[in-house]
Structures are given as C-alpha cells and as structure tokens.
Amino acid sequence: MVQDKVVVVTGAGNGIGREIALAMARSGARVVVNDIGASLTGDATGLNPGQQVVQEIKAFGGQAIANGDSVAEAGSAQRIIEAAVAAFGRIDCVVNNAGILRDRIFHKMSVEDWDAVVKVHLYGAYFTSKAAAPYFKEQESGSLVHMTSASGLVGNMGQANYSAAKLGITALSKSIALDMQRYNVRSNCICPFAWSRMTSSIPADTPEEQARVERLKQMTPDKIAPLAVYLASDAAAEVNGQVFAVRNNEMFLMSQPRPLRSVHRSEGWTPESIASHGMPALKASFYDLDRSADVFSWDPI
After folding, report:
1. Between 124-139 and 160-180, two packed helices, what is the crossing angle to 10 degrees?
2. Residues involved in catalysis
3. pLDDT above 70 for 154
4. Could you tell me if 161 and 118 are in contact, meaning their C-beta atoms sit under 8 angstroms apart?
C-alpha cells in the first residue's frame, strides 16, 4: 500500500506509534521512528525504544532509522523531517502520534501541566506538519495523519489540557486540508481506542472501573495501524479533512460540528426573550455532559 513512501511516525517507540511504524514498514514504507524515550508525563527516561523498533523493522527486511528529537519545539521538529529527507531523499507522510498525559482536575491543573501537554500534542502536530509542508508543496503530494482523542471529541474528566489539545488538532487538520488541497496534500485524524501507556492512567479503583479497564485491554494498539497505512497510501487520494475512530474491530466516521437547530425572531432578541422563547426552543437539542465512556458504552468486538 505504501511501497517506497517515506513516513515519519512520532512517538513510535511504544504502543500505537510502534504498531503504526511496523505496519508502515511491512507495507513497503521507509520509516523514521521518532521517539525521545520519555515517560508518560514527558520526563526523560534515558531509554531508546525507537532504536529497538528500528531493529525489529530491519529484522524482517524493512528500512528504518531512529530519531530522538522532540516534537515540542520548532527546531527539533524540523530536524525530524530533515532526517527523513537526508536518509531517504523525500518525505511522503507524517503520523503525529507523540503524546504525554498530565491528568488533573481542572481547578488543580497547573500552568506547567497545561503547557507540557499542549506543547507535545497541539504544538507538536503543528511543528512537524509545518516542517513537512514545503516538501509536500514542492512535490505536490503528501499525507498527514493526526491522532485525536475521544477526550477532545466527546469529553473526559481531569483532562482539560489533553482534551483541548486533541480537539485543537482536529481543527488544525481541517485547516491544513483546506489550505493545501490545491497541492494534493491530505490531512486526516484518527481517534484511537487502544490499551497503551496513554490509557494506563485510567482509574481502576472500583469493580466497575476494573471491569472497564479489562475491556479496554482487549483493544490492542495493532488495530489502529491499518487505517494509518491506508490514509498514507495513494488509495486514500480522495479522503481529506475527515475524522475517523477505531475501536478494536469497529471503525467510525466521526461527526463534525454543524448547526443542529435554529430559532428566529424578526424583531431580534432580548435577554428576556431568549429566556422565555429562544432557549426553551433549543433545549430539546442540548447535549448531555457525556464522557467518552457514556457515548462508547458497549463492549468492543
């Protein structure tokens, strides 16, 4: 599907990123395995999981290099893309998968917790995409695959930083799709459901929560990789600006915000008429304060 394409996968040392890197290589891509070897919270560990993934790829005859630059700074993100071009001569796809978590209930969330998560997720997706954009424009082709989350699309408690960044990524992806479609550049999002380091922080203090975690563990990271490979391929030439979700063996096309219901008064609105007429008319279409587990409430199959 992606024979001889050059693909950068960020955060590819573990979990979903690792599975995507392996799948890309098995499908013929030359892969830049980017990982800084950080913990779930973004702290350095001194380990080099990206190099281990490169060795796995080379063991089955694939082509790959490791890269340890951070996505969270513009200069280092630029070096990730330049590493791909230096090693393989071009860049065809960037999978923006790198991520960290610093979960806190909102009123206890520090500025540092906010900044760290937004920098890796939202700024990281911007920096790597921006670095690849001139190459994509010149060759008039390219694909960006961004990882969003149900925390941003639906909502979750204790993740204001992560949710804001992930929903921001969907808007970033749509803007890139609109701006660069004239150059045959595509930008799409995947909302992955999979047990990995990013979901290992889910509370499991009650029997109900423990049962949910066991269900989540059935959703292995390798289930996400086929869609990422497809979106990087020429077969997806007409797929642009979309948001997909993958949940074990289920695949979804997710909605995007559109008007639901309207009310009109020829004389205009006052605060009083909004209270007596406008809001009661709209209330039937209000969304509940759902969390992702409320919307995706059935067991994965």
Report:
1. 10
2. 162
3. yes
4. yes
CATH topology of domain 6-256: Rossmann fold (3.40.50)
Question: Domain locations in the chain?
Answer: 6-256
163-216 pLDDT per residue, tens = 999 999 999 999 999 999 999 999 999 999 987 655 555 666 777 766 766 766
**Which positions ≥6 away from 115 have C-beta within 8 Å?**
none
Residues ≥6 apart with Cβ < 8 Å to 6: 29, 30, 31, 32, 84, 85, 88, 89, 90, 91, 92, 93
Please provide the size of the chain in residues.
Answer: 301
Among the ranges given (35-44, 170-179, 224-233), the one the predictor scored with the smallest mean pLDDT: 35-44
Q: What is the Cα–Cα distance from 110 to 97, expressed in whole angstroms?
A: 24
User: pLDDT tens digits for 282-298?
Assistant: 999 999 999 998 999 88
Q: Which residue from 6, 58, 292, 4 is spatially nearest to 162, judged by alpha carbons? A: 292
The closest alpha carbon to 33, from 101, 124, 94, belongs to: 94
pTM, two decimal places = 0.91
Task: Give the helix/strand (H/E) hosting 129.
Answer: helix 124-139
